[in-house]
Design a protein that fits this description.
This is XRE family transcriptional regulator. The protein is α+β, with helices and mostly antiparallel strands. Helices cover 40% and strands 20% of the residues. A hairpin with a 5-residue loop joins strand 2 and strand 3.
Length: 164
């Protein structure tokens, strides 16, 4: 059996540092060499309680470079949060609707109320045959609005449905 010798990782350069919502936790855009000797640009999340891998080196770098500009934390916008939501299976979406007090049978009339044309035909096909649904798909907002739901209400239903 061949033994693999691993080297120590190194932090070669730091391009930028961003604060996070969590005190003392930073995201570093940096250049690293990993334990296998590969060098590349990376994004590293430094946590002060992490003593593994690159974190001790990042912590020491932060301590040694206190004048390096740290970009302030900017919370994500609702649109960015929506864009990052995981997809739902058709099952999760339909059960999520039920959990929000909406029968999936209410969706067909909402789609049928759309103006005649390709968009309506596409919506019918999506609703009937899609296996997964993306939160940012236009059909989700269109049908949500037709059912009287706001984007925030859809977000809550979506988040709850992810656990189903």
């Amino acid at each position: 059996m061949t033994e693999i010798s691993l080297g120590k990782p190194s932090l070669n350069a730091v391009y930028s540092v961003y604060a996070t919502a969590e005190h003392g936790v930073f995201v570093l855009d940096c250049n690293v060499t990993d334990a296998f000797g590969e060098t590349y640009d990376a994004v590293h999340c430094y946590r002060p309680d992490d003593s593994y891998g690159l974190s001790p080196l990042a912590g020491q770098w932060l301590a040694d470079n206190t004048s390096f500009p740290v970009q302030p934390y900017v919370p994500p916008t609702p649109a960015q949060i929506r864009a990052s939501m995981s997809t739902l299976t058709a099952r999760q979406l339909r059960l999520g609707l039920l959990g929000a007090g909406i029968s999936p049978s209410q969706v067909d009339p909402a789609i049928n109320a759309l103006p005649r044309g390709q968009a309506k035909d596409s919506a019918l096909i999506e609703w009937e045959y899609a296996r997964t649904f993306d939160r940012m798909h236009p059909l989700v907002s269109t049908i949500g609005a037709a059912l009287g739901l706001t984007d925030d209400q859809i977000d809550l239903m979506w988040s709850a449905a992810l656990g189903l």
